[in-house]
Task: inverse folding
């Protein structure tokens, strides 16, 4: 089976997308991250959910999470307000921190997808269509791929 | 809100759990990873889905994913058979590769949970009960936490 058939629709944001809207999308759709595309529809990077938290939580609290215990729910609301009037660009790590983006072509086989995920330790790959200017057509999660590769069986509760 | 209230049930495996069963659980429940506990119920590490693929895909193919294009579906079945008669212990990275495990106490506030996720770049934390020998009572995903922290709003399609 090719990546085209394994790919599922995935919300796509651009660096100009409102930061609050992007974070709310992660939350409401229970996603581990979002694909960030340029205005040309080509994948640019992935915004992991933990990166949103890195933007919200002051770095001195990240260095010593016990300090967060002293902050109340009102402080949480104030921190979240940082997302208003910010964009996805503000959430992204500085270029030096950008991981290489896991991308496969729509014609890649399931084992090629697996090899890319394995080598990049990634839970998600973006699927692009080379014949259509490398625009993103969807994404494949590691669980979706395993579901395709493995026989069905009993599940740990 | 404390980690106890945010925590959701999460399948727990031990190093002795059958590798195929663990992989099938990831697949069927669409999880990004599993919590691995010792026989004493204390969290030991997290098994990310990409680690299952690292076990299945030969390292020379990981180094050059294009090679996977030459393998057919029968080869995929043979690779998956490596999971039969293996255990979760076989899937785990060698100790040198183990990331520090993100864990919070049941009484941690939502901002403490956020600080731990942010500082460890983790999409998931295990929640333990200190008063019950640090046994795992569940887990919190980054999307679940954001859903609690953020106001509801429009969602990117």
Result:
């Amino acid at each position: 089976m090719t990546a085209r058939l394994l790919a599922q629709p995935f919300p796509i944001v651009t660096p100009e997308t409102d930061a609050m809207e992007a974070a709310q999308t992660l939350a409401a759709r229970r996603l581990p991250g979002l694909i960030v595309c340029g205005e040309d529809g080509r994948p640019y990077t992935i915004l992991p959910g933990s990166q949103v938290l890195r933007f919200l939580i002051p770095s001195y609290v990240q260095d010593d999470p016990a300090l967060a215990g002293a902050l109340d729910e009102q402080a949480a609301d104030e921190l979240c307000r940082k997302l208003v009037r910010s964009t996805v660009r503000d959430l992204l790590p500085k270029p030096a921190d950008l991981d290489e983006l896991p991308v496969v072509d729509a014609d890649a086989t399931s084992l090629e997808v697996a090899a890319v995920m394995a080598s990049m330790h990634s839970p998600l790959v973006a699927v692009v269509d080379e014949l259509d200017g490398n625009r993103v057509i969807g994404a494949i999660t590691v669980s979706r791929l395993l579901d395709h590769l493995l026989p069905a069986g009993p599940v740990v509760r």
